[in-house]
Amino acid sequence: MNHNLTSEMYLSEYGRFFGMLERKLFVQSHIKGMPTTSLKKSFSKQFGLTARQFNSLRMQLDGKVSSILEKRKFDIQQLESKIEYLQKSIVKKTTQKDKLLQKLLRIPQTSPAFPKQHKKYRNMKFYLHQKKRRLRNIQHKLEKLKSDELNHKIRICFGSKKLFHKQFYLEENKYKDHAQWKEKWLESRSSQFLVVGSKDETYGNQSATYDLQNAISKYGKYITFPEVHFPYGQEVIDQAKIPYMGFTRNGKPQKYFSSITYRFLKQKKGWYVNATLEKETPKIGTSNLNGLIGIDLNAGFLAICEIDRFGNPIKSWTVDVPMYCRRKEQLQASLSDALKEILAHAVSVQKDVVIEKLDFSQKKASLREMGTKYARMLSGFAYSSFQQLIESKAKKAGVRIRKVNPAYTSQIGQMKFMARYGLSSHGSAACMIARRGYYFKTEKPKYDSVLSFPKKFDKQKANFNNWRSLTRHWGKYYYFQDKIELLKADI
User: Fold this and answer.
1) Residue 431 belongs to a domain with what CATH number?
2) Which of 143, 188, 196, 320 is the most interior residue, by most CB within 10 Å?
3) Which of 253, 277, 301 lies at the terminal end of a domain, its last residue?
4) What is the DSSP letter of 443?
């Protein structure tokens, strides 16, 4: 039999076995609530697993569960934000509908203006009906998520919900029959498995060893993959295969390896293997002694501003990150490249990077000032990916990340620094984010501005409270672009 075919069959068979055990473990641990210690014994006895194999199974399942819990928290925040926005919109449109009705009642039905006003009124009623429907649907989703959170209920669809629902639309998804879909479904549920390593095992892993001849042996003598080379980090893995001498808890000398964990994944072109190993995190090489770098996340790009130690902007620029109509992989790649460029600059100038302590709902609300279409471009995935990527990449690069309160950074930056330093509206926001890293006192509003102020405005109040009042006022009286043009001329 062909060696490649044998390998394919072996990995597929083990993937099916691992997938079946993972689903059983989920039912026993998260549905029936059985403790892990007793499950470890029963699984080892019933299925002939080693302790390391059970740990691999448990770690993969725990990763999926923790991901679902994090996503659920994020979804609850996002839905609450949508509900708040819809409720405000419904109240506003209801008032407009009532005014239209009063106007319509005053117009005789024989008047030429009646059909036009009647159509306007009907359109408003239809708009409100759709908004109320959407509000009810979102409230139902939120109630379900909060109920799951309160009852500690975990829902996992092994194989993905998207593929599961395709069985109900076979023709549209180009399946000949249900059997063809089921084959794809079973394959999806068995498409990956984890092999956890340990430093006290040969070549850092008991079950899959990557030896000095660059061959991976799956369960020792059973199957070997010769000449395995990794496109990234090969030199790091080669170094990990070299043992070093250490000591046990009893003080006895012992040979150790770097722990290597392997994840086997089945994709369109066949099986792939990813290797993960511990790598010493470089020491932080940046500080706030000479200044800081602020980053403002926007829909479609990142705005960056570098300041000196006194808070004055030195350099401002943007890096494009296309976000609209992009696949998750494309978006992650674009964000990764952009952050790599920014962090490389931070290393070269030895300055810490400052970002907003982001609340996605607040970020979306601030973007709505520029229009709802603009706000829609910033997806929740882009928002969460930005935070995860910058933190992980900064650790690898030795850059310290500082998080600051994002409240009114855009308003303060636009009024105080945009015209003075010739910054863009987003560059001035990034400047303010960087300045927040020094915890300067909140800037006073420019009281001789060309922009109007609220009628009841107390200059004696705290600056932060005044910026809150001004932000609300300007949001009602100015379109975003009009406000920016006025502030650019206001030197």
Assistant:
1) 3.30.420.40
2) 196
3) 277
4) P
Q: Helix or strand or coil: residue 380?
A: helix
My answer on whether 352 and 476 are in the same domain is: yes
Which domain range does residue 95 map to?
1-155
Task: Print the SS3 string covering 280-335.
Answer: CCCCCCCEEEEEEEEEEEECCEEEEEEECCCCCEEEEEEEECCCCCCCHHHHHHHH
* 360 and 382, same domain (yes or no): yes
Residues 151 and 209 in one domain: no
**Given the DSSP bridges, would you call strands 313-320 and 301-307 parallel, antiparallel or unpaired?**
antiparallel
- How does pLDDT run along the chain (491 residues), one tens digit per residue? 345 667 788 888 889 999 999 999 999 999 999 998 899 999 999 998 888 899 999 999 999 999 999 889 888 988 888 898 889 889 999 999 999 999 999 999 889 889 999 999 999 999 999 999 999 999 999 999 999 999 989 999 999 999 999 999 999 999 999 999 999 999 999 999 999 988 888 888 888 888 777 666 654 456 788 888 888 888 888 888 888 887 777 878 888 888 899 999 998 888 899 998 877 778 899 999 999 999 998 878 999 999 999 999 999 999 998 877 778 888 889 999 999 999 999 999 999 999 998 665 565 555 555 555 555 556 666 677 888 899 999 999 999 999 999 888 989 999 999 989 999 999 999 999 999 999 999 999 988 888 888 888 888 888 889 998 998 888 888 877 888 888 877 66
- Quick count: other Cβ atoms within 10 Å of Cβ 148? 16
- Category of 131 on φ-ψ map: left (φ > 0), alpha (ψ -120 to 50) or beta: alpha
Strand order of the β-sheet with 301-307 is: 313-320, 301-307, 287-298, 351-356, 401-404
Residue 97 and residue 124 in contact, taking contact as beta carbons nearer than 8 Å: yes
Residues 323 and 237 in one domain: no
Q: Are 295 and 346 in contact (CB under 8 A)?
A: no
| Torsion, Cα of 478, 482, 488, 490 (10° steps) | -50
Same domain as 415, residue 355: yes
List C-alpha distances in Å: 240 to 219, 231, 257, 287. 20, 16, 7, 31
